[in-house]
Every structure is written in C-alpha cells, then in structure tokens.
From TrEMBL:
GO terms for biological process: CTP metabolic process; UDP catabolic process. ATP binds at residues 182-186. It holds the Pfam family GDA1_CD39. GO terms for cellular component: Golgi apparatus; membrane. It comes from the Eukaryota. Residues 687-700 have a biased composition (Basic residues). Belongs to the GDA1/CD39 NTPase family. Keywords: ATP-binding, Hydrolase, Membrane, Nucleotide-binding, Transmembrane, Transmembrane helix. This is Golgi apyrase. The keyword Hydrolase applies. Residues 618-640, 668-708 are annotated as: Disordered. InterPro entries: GDA1_CD39_NTPase.
C-alpha cells in the first residue's frame, strides 16, 4: 500500500479562520507503483468536506489581545486537524497558517504580535511539523493568494495534467481565476503569447514538478485589489452615501441597495422599524431600487484613477490586455455565493449570464423587507439563507456586476457577444458539465469534482510537488518568483523537505541515514557504486526464488540430469551425490519409500537363511515378483551383503556399497539393527519388528544367491 503524506493549512481570512487537511501519496512510492498517466501528473491530492472547519471571527480581531488567539481561536481548529491526521503521521505533517486581507489592514506591530502567539501556541500544544515560524505562519500578499487560487483551479480542472483536453486555441490551455473575499479581490491568468511577450516583466514564473520528476513552468499575471472585497467595498459605499446625501452625522439616509422598509445603523446593525434613533446618529433606510444601486456602486471601481502603466482596469492597476477568446475565467468565494446562494436555488440554474442574473436580482431586491423575512421563515430560497444573507445580497450583486463587467471587462454574453433578444446564455452555459466545457468568459464555481476550490489547495499542490525528487540533479526547484531564468532573488519555496518514509532508510558505516532514492533507481539508474553488485544480488535472489517455486520433483529431475551428465563415462564406481540425503530439497523423492520397505518389510521381498561366517557365498535372496530381474543381476556378478562393521548403518548394497539399484533409483537404509538369520534369533517369528534382540550377533559374511 502506498503511504500517505499530509498537510494542514489554515486560511486566516478577514471574516474567520478555516482549517483544511490535505493528503497525497508519497512521491517515491507513487513513482514506483504509478502508471504512465500517474507519472505524468502532479501528486494526487485528496481532501473531504469533513476535513474542513471554520470559526468566526478572524484572527485580526485579536489585535488588542493577541495572547488569547490560541485558546479562544486556534484550539478547536487544531483539535479538528488532529482528529483527521493519523497519530503516527503528525510529526511529519507540516502546518501552515496563512493570513490574508484582514491581517493586511493591521499595523505591522499588531500583525507580528498575533503571528508570534499563533506560532508559539501550535509549537507548545501540538507536534505538527513547524520548523520555521516566518515561513509557516505569515501574512501573504494578495498576489500570492491569487497565484495559489489560479493553481488550485487549473489543478482541479485538469489543465496541468491533460492540456490537450483544454485547448482553447492559440496554444492556450489554462483558465483564468477570480476571487472575491471580504477585504480584497484577486485576478490571475496566463496572457496570450503576444501579451505575455509584451508584458514579460509583469508576469510571475510558477514552477511545478510531476511525479516522474520533470518540471513544468507557467507564466502568470497576478494582481490584487486591497479594499475591493465585498465588505470593504460596502464600507466605502456607506461613507460615500453619507457624504452625498447631506450630513455625515445626523438624519436618515436612503439606501437603494437595501430592501424597502429595512432600517439599519451605519455599522450594519439591523434596527427595528419603530425603534428610536438618537438625534445625532445617522442611519440608513432601504428603498429597494436596484437600478440606482448599480449606478451608485459603479464609482467604487475608481476607473478614473491615474494609470501609470497602460493598460489598467481598476484603481489604476496595470493589467495586460485580456484575450477572452482564450482566457476563460472561473470565479470562487464571493462570486459563487453572490450568484448562487439565493438565485440559483430559486431558479434551478447553475450558470451565469448577465441579463438573466440581473433580472433575477432586480426581482428579488424589489421585494419589501417584510416579504423577504416571510420568505426566509418558509425557506423559500433554501435553508441556508437567513435574514443577513437576504438583505446583503442586493449590494453584493450590484458590486459583482460592476466589478465583473465594467471593472475587469468580462463580456456580457447576450449583449456584447450574442445578438438577439431570445438568446438564453444561462441555458447554454449550463450544458457544459465537464471541465473541458468551462469555455465561457466567466463561470462561478464552488466545487469541481466534489472538491472545494480554495486557494489553500493551491498551496498544497505547490508543497506536494516540491516533495517529488527531481529527474536530474540540476533541475530547478519548485516555487515561484520573478519571471527571469534560473532561481530569482525573490523566489519563494513552498516549504521544508519532508523526511523520507521509514522503508527508505539505509544503514551506512554503522549510522542510520535517510534517503528518498528508490531501490529501482539505485540499482539500475545513475552512477552509484552499488549499482553492479546490486544487480548480481538481485539476480541471485530471483534464482533462489525460482528454485523453491519449481517444486521438489522438478528439482530432483534437474539434479539427476546434472549429476548423470557430470559422471557419464566414469566407470562402474559412482560417488554418492553431494547433497543427496542431507537436505530435504535435494536427492531422490523415492528414497523414503524404499527405506520404509527395507525397515518394515514387504510381502514381495524376503531374505533367505544365511550361511556361517566362514562361508563366502550368500544364500538366495528372493524377489518372487521379479525373478527374471534377479537372475539378470546374479549373472552379472552383483554382490549383495551386509556390513555390520559400520557405525553409521546396516545396509543392503551393490558391489560392496550400501545401495540397491532398482528401477534406476538409489535406495539405502539407515537402520542400526542387526539383520540375522532365523536360526540365530530365537525371537524371530517370521515378521520383522522395530524391536531388536538384546543379544548382539556378529554379522555373517555375505554369500551369493540364485533364483529358486
């Protein structure tokens, strides 16, 4: 069975922290057992929905009391991970705590205080692999988060392992990535060849390694907009609303992005309709006018910000021109929840197009707040939709439409691309169920092949890939950095090297050392000094195994052939076989049967009386069933006799040797009994017995015999 490797990754976001557990086959074992398809793929990472757990709020909420982040926040997440990772794997399982936009908004001093407490708590309460706090517990920038998300998306869609199935034209096979969190939004994509050459300095070089040890490089553009997540966008929207509607401090302010009749405090707290508000406290009252909501959220894109490096999209941030003929974007997180939490469940469609989506949002947001509350109580939009989800979705939807189409420039399928009022883009998109069918300009997803699309998976892909032994010693490392040849100064490694699995340990010079070299590679590849003797040792083991598997009869036949061929032409005298009778798997199979005949007696074999010691001629030994054979032997002058002087055995032999050649088989008896004539043995009753006489007799000399 291929051993597993594990990794624990905590996504410390702005609204909460979620732990993810991932596992994959050990790279050395996978290379040994893998088929061609496996060898040409990235490590096969697996996870389950039950291996993830989220708690609220985020770690950034502990900025004023960082000492409480361990017991009050991390403990249930770490306990959950320890319940999943097998106990004997914990010490070899790396753990990463990667904080995102919520922590980026804090001052550096507060960030460092929280991260220090997070790391010390993990080291003191668990045995997870955490050798370096700076690389394992950190605040990652938006570009890194976006690159991880792009990696996870393309990994799940299969564009890394099977690019031929994702040919988008112009030699392009990867997908673009969009992510919207609470505080920031990210975009990542591989520009077409023309744009990639034009903006080479703006790209990030990503290097991965497949199970066979070969590397694959990708050049990706990644950028992040801090403050353009849905929560931060809402804060900027409310501030602008108060400024444009008169007074920042007093009075009622109408909000077209809230349901009609909903009364809310500026900080987002919902107020009762008849609740009194202090004279100096501003508050919001919803009007439910979605068209006006779209107009008021558009300025938040800051499209008029200065652009120092053309082209720019949002907030004056440079982005290479996007070729939507080959760049097909997949949106996760806020893009998925905003398009599917309410509207997909109500209309049973799983895809997105601009017109259909906007019509559904407008219909929903025109409802009075009391009607929305009634729908929530009856689970009209699903059991997961609560009041907060219901009143927040109108602003989220308007922000998504603006940032997606007016900000990034994703074409409106029915307006910008398809002409004709009867075209249903949602129906057309929903027919694309396979990953190869993600060919629309934009599609929101939550899971691909039952696996949640999360940027943490991208981190796991990079880390597991870095644990694969390279095909050559001079291969470049796995990681990412500036788009320059070799290893740039800002190159980021995924993490520390994992220790080898136990069965790959070797003993050298009395000391135990570890290696991830596989025995197959050690014996047959490279220039190792153990290669030649290793091959001979391997062949010897194979020959011994074949020897025992061929069976006793076959071993005997082979041995006799070799023995006879080596003694052919050597005269009448033949040596006793080297191993015959000594080892149970050499010699002749019939030996035991003949010994039992000689020791226990048989009805077709008897010895006649014996002459005196002085008589040199033996009396007849009879073989009633084979008289002609006996006569033939006698005529050839074969001498039969008994040797009582041997301390080893008493036997019946040929020509003075303790053997009888019968039907071509060598037979000998190992009995120590004296064979005496009936006249000298008063206890003889005509039947042989294993019980010998207490009186020892001197064996008579041998005499000849003849057929009666």
């Amino acid at each position: 069975m291929v051993p597993w490797r594990y990794a624990v990754i905590l996504d410390a976001g702005s609204s909460g922290t979620r732990v993810h557990v991932y596992r994959w086959p050990d790279s050395a074992a996978a290379r040994e057992a893998g088929r061609r398809k496996v060898l040409k793929s990235l490590p096969a990472i697996k996870t389950k929905s039950s291996w993830s757990k989220k708690i609220k709020p985020g770690v950034s909420s502990f900025s004023k009391a960082p000492e409480n982040v361990g017991a009050d926040h991390l403990k249930p997440l770490l306990d959950h991970a320890l319940d999943i990772v097998p106990q004997d794997h914990v010490a070899d399982t790396p753990i990463f705590v990667l904080a995102t936009a919520g922590m980026r908004l804090l001052p550096d001093s507060e960030q460092k205080a929280i991260l220090k407490k997070v790391c010390s708590h993990i080291q003191e309460t668990t045995h997870f692999l955490l050798p370096d706090c700076d690389s394992h517990v950190q605040v990652i920038d938006g570009k890194t988060e976006g690159l991880y998300g792009w990696t996870a998306t393309n990994y799940l869609l299969g564009s890394f392992d099977a690019p031929q199935l994702h040919d988008h034209g112009k030699d392009h096979h990867t997908y673009g990535f969009l992510d919207m969190g609470g505080a920031s939004s990210q975009i990542a994509f591989a520009p077409n060849a023309t744009e990639a050459q034009k903006h080479a300095d703006d790209l990030t070089l990503l290097r991965l390694r497949k199970v066979n040890g070969r590397t694959a490089e990708h050049k990706v553009f990644v950028t992040s907009w801090l403050g353009f997540g849905v929560h931060e966008a809402r804060n900027r929207y409310v501030k602008a609303l108060l400024e444009t509607s008169g007074s920042l401090d007093t009075g009622k302010h109408e909000d077209p992005c809230l349901p009609a009749g909903l009364k809310m405090a500026v900080d987002g707290t919902m107020l009762e309709a008849d609740s009194a508000v202090a004279v100096n406290d501003p508050y919001l009252v919803g009007t439910g006018k979605f068209d006006q909501c779209l107009l008021k959220t558009y300025p938040l894109l800051e499209k008029d910000a200065p652009c120092e490096d053309e082209p720019c999209l949002i907030h004056g941030v440079h982005v290479p021109a996007i070729d939507f003929d080959v760049n097909h974007f997949v949106g996760i997180s806020g893009f998925w929840h905003t398009t599917h939490e309410i509207f997909a469940s109500a209309h049973k469609d799983e895809a997105y197009d601009h017109t259909t989506y906007q019509e559904r949002v407008k219909e929903f947001c025109s409802l009075k707040w009391s009607d929305m509350q009634a729908g929530v109580l009856t689970s009209k939009w699903g059991k997961k939709v609560d009041e907060k989800t219901a009143y927040e979705v109108c602003f989220k939807a308007s922000w998504l439409i603006n940032i997606l189409h007016d900000g990034i420039g994703v074409p409106r399928i029915d307006i910008d691309t398809m002409n004709g009022p009867g075209y249903n883009g949602t129906k057309a998109v929903s027919t694309n169920e396979k990953p190869e069918g993600y060919l629309d300009a934009f599609q929101a997803v939550d899971k691909i092949d039952a696996t949640e699309v999360s940027w943490t998976l991208g981190k796991a892909v990079l880390y597991s890939s870095s644990q694969v032994r390279p095909a050559r010693d001079d291969d470049l490392p796995v990681g990412f950095g500036s788009n320059v040849p070799g290893v740039p100064d800002d190159f980021q490694y995924p993490g520390p090297k994992l220790p080898p699995i136990p069965h790959l340990e070797v003993i050298e010079s009395g000391n135990t050392t570890t290696t991830d070299d596989h025995w197959h590679d050690t014996l047959f590849n490279g220039d190792t000094p153990r290669r030649i003797p290793g091959v001979f040792l391997f062949l010897l083991i194979v020959l011994i195994a074949l020897f025992f598997l061929c069976g006793r009869e076959r071993r005997s036949r082979i041995y006799r052939r070799l023995y006879l061929s080596s003694h052919r032409g050597g005269g009448a005298y033949r040596k006793r076989p080297l191993f015959g009778g000594k080892l149970p798997f050499f010699g002749h199979r019939n030996t035991v049967a003949y010994e039992r005949v000689l020791e226990e007696g048989a009805p077709d074999f008897e010895l006649d009386g014996f002459a005196s010691e002085d008589d040199l001629s033996p009396k007849a030994a009879r073989f009633p069933s084979s008289s002609s054979s006996s006569s033939s032997r006698s005529s050839q002058g074969l001498k039969y006799g008994f040797d009582n002087g041997s301390s080893q055995s008493v036997g019946l032999g040929i020509g003075g040797h303790a053997a009888l050649d019968r039907a071509g088989l060598v037979v000998r008896t190992e009995s120590r009994e004296q064979l005496v004539p009936p006249a000298l043995n008063p206890t003889f009753n005509g039947r042989r017995s294993r019980t010998s006489s207490p009186v020892r007799h001197k064996a008579p000399k041998t005499s000849g015999f003849s057929n009666d």
